[in-house]
Amino acid sequence: MARLSRTQPSAVDGIGSGEGNVIAAFAAAVPLAGTRVLEIGGMAGPGTVAGLGVSAWVSIDPRNIPARLGVVERVAGVGERLPFADESFDHVFSCNAFEHIADVPATLAECHRVLRERGRLWSRFGPVWSGPDGHHLEGLRWGGRDWIFWRDPIVPCWSHLLHSQAELAEVLATRVHWELAELSAAAIFGPWTNKWTQARLVRAFEASPLAVESIQYARGIDYLFPRFDWDHPYLDPLAEDPVGVLSQHLADGTDIMVRDLTVRMRKR
Fold first, then answer.
1. Using alpha carbons only, what angle is made at residue 9 by residues 7 and 10, rounded to the nearest 5 degrees?
2. For the stretch 51-74, what's the b/e string if a residue is b when 16 or more beta carbons lie within 10 angstroms of its beta carbon?
3. Topology of domain 19-129+195-225+254-266, CATH
4. 170 FRET partner, CA 20 to 30 A, in 54, 102, 123, 135?
């Protein structure tokens, strides 16, 4: 039986950036003084946007509790149905949201509607479903604590792409408590992520009414992944040639090493 330790990707720099770093990169590239910015899938506070000079920073997320905090306004809602007037924002910003959005084309169409002429969309997000840790296990509470994928890397890379929920739970139960294994598999295959591959996401951006200025990729993972000798027959297909096996399985041109995307778009 093959061992899976050889399939773990190498770490790279510059991926998985937090919202503060992504906002700083956004502000360095896009003049923001006096502008109205819409944040899709976020809840930035006054401290995060302080010093940007924006006239308004409106964050929409289904988890938001409606509030006004200086120039910051938090709105409960989803990107597919933005409760704002046409051409009411100068720019759209988004950090770690598009891997969760159920209907990416509808959200991009809404961004186009609410953007003013020449307005920009700036988005950085990941991990995408087809990436090494695209299972995005996060927010699961068990054993008196939260389990988060970058701190608790208990899921073999790419195993979520090749196996069913029951099969993945069986694999995980060889390393963790069976209850945690079942809860983790259920969370991974639940509605937390949209299950869109890198190639499908790129096609959606390219087909949107917004013009693509650039799409950049970050590959690999940027945290220590324990090199377990996973010894399970379900993982045998990934032991020798994960790229070949998964490329054939997905059959859509996806680069399975891509974890994060940075997308810059403009309204024509």
1. 135
2. ebebebbbbbbeebeeeeeebbbb
3. Rossmann fold (3.40.50)
4. 102
